[in-house]
Amino acid sequence: MLGAMSDVESAAKPLTPRARARAQTIADIVRLGREHLAKQGAAALSLRAVARDLGVVSSAVYRYVESRDELLTLLLVDAYNELGDAVDAALDACPESDHRARFAALAHAVRSWALREPARYGLLFGSPVPGYQAPAERTTEPGTRVVRALIKVVDDAYREHGGTPAQTRPPAVGPGLHADFEAIRAQLGSTLSDDALARGTLVWTALFGTVSFEVFGQYGPETFRANDELFDLHVEHLAGLAGLG
Amino acid sequence: MLGAMSDVESAAKPLTPRARARAQTIADIVRLGREHLAKQGAAALSLRAVARDLGVVSSAVYRYVESRDELLTLLLVDAYNELGDAVDAALDACPESDHRARFAALAHAVRSWALREPARYGLLFGSPVPGYQAPAERTTEPGTRVVRALIKVVDDAYREHGGTPAQTRPPAVGPGLHADFEAIRAQLGSTLSDDALARGTLVWTALFGTVSFEVFGQYGPETFRANDELFDLHVEHLAGLAGLG
DNA sequence: TGAAAGTCAAGAGCACTGCTCTCAAAAGTT
DNA sequence: AACTTTTGAGAGCAGTGCTCTTGACTTTCA
């Protein structure tokens, strides 16, 4: 889709009927691919199945999409942009000045999109598809939209009042979550408070989030040379968050 | 491996030569599967390739392993236990009393194993393999070893002195990481301090870690009913960590 | 208008996958 | 020695990505 459309756009000619039909077919392929991706995940994405749904023989789709990996790249960019759009929309609906609310909006936008599109989220942030290497020149720009938005939020906050230290009063735990924590305490024989368990689960998931980013190469190829130091810092903060003085 | 051995063990008979050979063959299959998994990832794991390496025709391996999914389960349990062993070993090498050091040891054990075995880590904590559903009765016990160890660390600390509040003095940033942060600031036109960037990256990865846990179902099937509340709490803490008062 | 150029879908085919079935040989048991 | 169980081989089915050739169609241009 992107490739074909940019070809057409760069030519700046009125679309010939043929070019229109071609762009439409590629758009259809991406749409069907997205549906398959959403249903079964990236590893199960099959060009032949897309061809069947398109009502065409399997070899025909190769006229429009170079390979399965090419389609995967199209879908990757597609998904990154949809997530980026969701985050941008959530931020736009927030007052410029309330930085905490803006962060919360960003976080919730990421989560709702991920829950709505688990397989596509998995393509972006899960284990890499074997044998597939995303072409950086096409994926880094859309792939960094969320981080850039996050940095802007934090940057704005610091520019305004130089980083407020974390509040220490624990946020309130609602009844539903309290019941979950009760069950966990019973199951594991733990005596940790609701607040400690909330922090603990965050430390747990954050630990694996940090490790996953490094293992799956989601920081970007050349972002961090001092990965060990970065991880040590993160562990320090997580230990503090867990309450391990 | 597990199935066969438990059959033999439950019979409590001395191993017949045939049973010995069978157990050995299954062990070989798991070993070869682990090698393939480590090289190409779960989605590319092929029973036929394993059969070739074993020097046997493809249908023969079905005498030992019910299906590809069955082999995947074997490898899943295998990986969980190796990670669990690594964490336990790291904890055993730590003084009982230094809870912060124990947490750091656990974290570093997870990270080194993950970096050593990226594809197997991906099987455990990446996007789910399409069409494969891990049998809970065989995977939950080994799959929860790390969390249980983590909870024990935190529990011990709280039992001893009731949860020390997080220290507020920022940990020192080394020269290597400082250079990385300089590059990031230059690239993004940010003026955030090293400490703010360290916290920011942790917030970033932690956000996606938390979302991934929920999307990929790594909390366990029935652990949290109040997922929304839990996420809100996590966002609160992350906002605090990011310095968004 | 008519021929050349460009574009397209179809089909066959290759090498791979998971998995099932049958059959004969090997191994263990009585 | 006869019988039973276990095992490996091979064929086969349905699926995959991808390539190549062939014939038909559309656009362009003289």
Task: List the helices and strands of chain A in order.
Answer: HHHHHHHHHHH
Summarize the main sheet of chain A.
none
Distance between the termini of chain A: 53 Å
Q: Return the average pLDDT of chain A rounded to an integer.
A: 89
Sheet/helix structural class of chain A: mainly alpha
Strand content of chain A: under 5%
User: What's the total number of strands of chain A?
Assistant: 0
**How many DSSP H or I helices of chain A?**
11
Helix content of chain A: 55-70%
Global morphology of chain A:
elongated
Indicate the radius of gyration of chain A in whole angstroms.
22 Å
Low-confidence stretches of chain A: 1-13
Largest interface: A-B, 100 and 99 residues
Q: What's the quaternary structure here?
A: homodimer
